[in-house]
Request: fold
Amino acid sequence: MTLKQFMKQAKHLSLPDKALIKSAFIFSQKAHSGQKRFSGEPFFSHPGAVALELTKMGFDGKIVSAGLLHDTLEDTSVSREELAKNFGGEILEIVEGVTKLGKVRLKKTWFGLGLPKKERLPEYERQIETLKKMFLAMSRDIRVVIIKIIDRLHNMQTIQFLAPEKRLRFASETLKIYAPLAYRLGMGEIKGKLEDLAFPIVYPEEYQILVQKIKSQQKRQQKVINKAIRVSRRLLALNQLEIINIHGRVKYLYSLYKKMNLAEYDGDIAKIFDLVAVRIIVKNVADCYCALGIIHQRWRPLPGRVKDFIALPKPNGYSSLHTTVFGPAGKPLEIQIRTPFMHEQAEYGIAAHWQYKEKTSRTKNWLKKIFPDSSQGIKWLTNLIRIQKNIKDPYELAKILELDFFSDRIFVFTPAGDVKDLPQDASPIDFAYAIHTEVGHHYAGARVNGQMVNYEYRLKNNDIVEIIVKKKARARRDWLKAVKTSDARQKIRRATQKA
Ligand code: MN
Reply:
């Protein structure tokens, strides 16, 4: 890639940004000259590819330049002083952050099932220490995390050149740490790509089985999709609704694999309706609802499958309308309707907001959700660090990390429509504590979607949960068996110790 080719992709940036990128490009190319990657390509192809992706995602000159320079401190003779002199302290700090993060290595033992044996405790404690450092580095400047995620994406795309035993560690780390991180930042596409690159390496057999299973299904569904696209296009045009884009989307394999393993699907691929989906992109929010109405007039919706993530966005900012209809030939088909902005946000998350210089109120709200405390710290990350500081027992800490960070999340609602983000299989008690400590302590029962449930009930995505509190009710030790969040666990412990 030449400078000229690269700058073509950066056309939309300001003049000072372009100048900065140009000098970073030349500087990095020179610093890495003579170095080669495992693939035999010049080393510069790597930072070049990372920076190009960042540019395409719409990030500014500083992030793109830091992307170009991200391996210079580690792998070349360039010094901190030189970097600071040429590009300023801010870019130096980002590059240093990325370098530090790159040194954090999680051993394979970390990814084993269950907890380690007693004799390996010292080794395990070291791992926890590294992990803590990692979280801390990330919480200081979000840009470090963004570059690290894209760096990982490119390394995964070229993983075939690594030694096999390194491949497994790399892919596990990607699945356990980088994909969840990308998801937390709302980068849905990047998360899907990372997972699908790691999936065949971490679970080769499961991967093969799944690929075989979906082959015939997908072909059949593709026909349905094509028909649905043709019909939708005509219907919307008839109603004078402007379509920006309409396309089919295929589900990422790893997310399909995870979904199939959920109890409600029982490994049966035929029960999954969103294997493929039609995505309709229209001008504005009003048109989204309008399009939904038009679609529903033609194809009857499946009850309980209409989801309004525009009125109630997911905690990571995702918004769209989803519906499953009895589509062409009466087959269930998922349809997603969104605006161009929502689409960008779903694909690139935080990056979508970088491009909108003057912040709209929606952008502001979204940013507030992800950065409630400061402009650069992430709330769940700072929370995690706070909790970790108080915990000395590595077993307890490992449990918390599994629960809060590495687990999948569900979205559960209060009757007023507030959304809470909880780990999978969370109980009504977790939900109560997520609302308020006192609500947890005085929990006396819960209604889920209007039905009374006991405290061991496992919440599901989109459940509406009403907590019943009684003044006399007190936290109980046996709740500990049911809770899935470290927050609830700690509070119950504390409350029941006092008694
Ligand atoms: Mn790199």
